[in-house]
């Protein structure tokens, strides 16, 4: 199998990133691994789709850390390949990372992912559905019963009325963005700064105002979903609890949050079951959902992180069932290529 991983850029990749772990697992099994960035695409004169990839030498590495060193070394060569020869393209970039400084790059994975599908490549997650998920408005398409009450607006009066409805306790965040960037918790202590918070976010677009869920005091639970189902090995779920850092409402690990092991209860499984049909309908192969109580606060369909941390805490390697699922899809596609489109193949 030839598998390509599309990322924002190589400088922002790290040894413990989920993409690294998945690429390492694929290479350990003898598959050819490529890395692609937004600068690498080439749509040629004959309408063939090429990419100037980083081709990781075949072989094995003792762990994903050693694999990452090889990836960044001179042994990993640049090569122009015809994407029609690639079996799988995994879109692992975060469009919001590029939207300000490199707007041309933000949706390049989606655009060229669609072109790859036309040329017979299986693209995960499905690029057509990802195009509808480039901002948090996609979140509003999930069943209302698992969403915290939310409004999206640029009107300060709307937000103030919403805050009053919720006794002054709300969360404000930008419609576009990720990683906890630009997130504010409004309460009675800082209500006098509400105008400044609204201005800071609305300067770049729409504002999401969301009711504050009391269970958020305990942090959120990041749960991975694979083929629309909670990812697990035996009775161990690919999940962790992310607690807020000191003096910071954000539970994102890189924003100061702390990761802890967590037991997945019937509450989280019920939430996962409610959103399962939507994930399947949209061809979302690998997703990270953030759960607080019986609500989901976010659905990360682009580059869900913490896969390595979940594996370490559970004493298993969750990259194995993910690559197992990819291999299975490739086998099915080889036998029944004409029977499934990319969106269905992504979650079969």
Automatic annotation (TrEMBL):
Keywords in UniProt for this one?
A: ATP-binding, Glutathione biosynthesis, Ligase, Magnesium, Manganese, Metal-binding, Nucleotide-binding
PANTHER family in the record? GLUTATHIONE SYNTHETASE, RIBOSOMAL PROTEIN S6 MODIFICATION PROTEIN
Q: Which gene encodes it?
A: gshB
Q: Per UniProt, what is one GO molecular function of this protein?
A: glutathione synthase activity
What does the sequence similarity comment in the record state about its family? Belongs to the prokaryotic GSH synthase family.
Give residue ranges for domain ATP-grasp: 136-327
Q: Which InterPro entries match?
A: ATP-grasp, ATP_grasp_subdomain_1, Glut_synth_pro, GSHS_ATP-bd, GSHS_N, PreATP-grasp_dom_sf
According to the UniProt record, what class of enzyme is this? ligase
Look up the EC number in the record and give it: 6.3.2.3
| A Gene Ontology term for the protein's cellular component | cytoplasm
Per its UniProt record, the required cofactor names are: Mn(2+); Mg(2+)
Organism field: Sphingomicrobium lutaoense
Keyword field contains Signal? no
Recorded metabolic or biological pathway in which this protein acts: Sulfur metabolism; glutathione biosynthesis; glutathione from L-cysteine and L-glutamate: step 2/2
Protein name, as recorded: Glutathione synthetase
Pfam annotation, one family: GSH-S_ATP
Catalysed reaction(s) here are: gamma-L-glutamyl-L-cysteine + glycine + ATP = glutathione + ADP + phosphate + H(+)
Keyword Magnesium included in the entry's annotation: yes
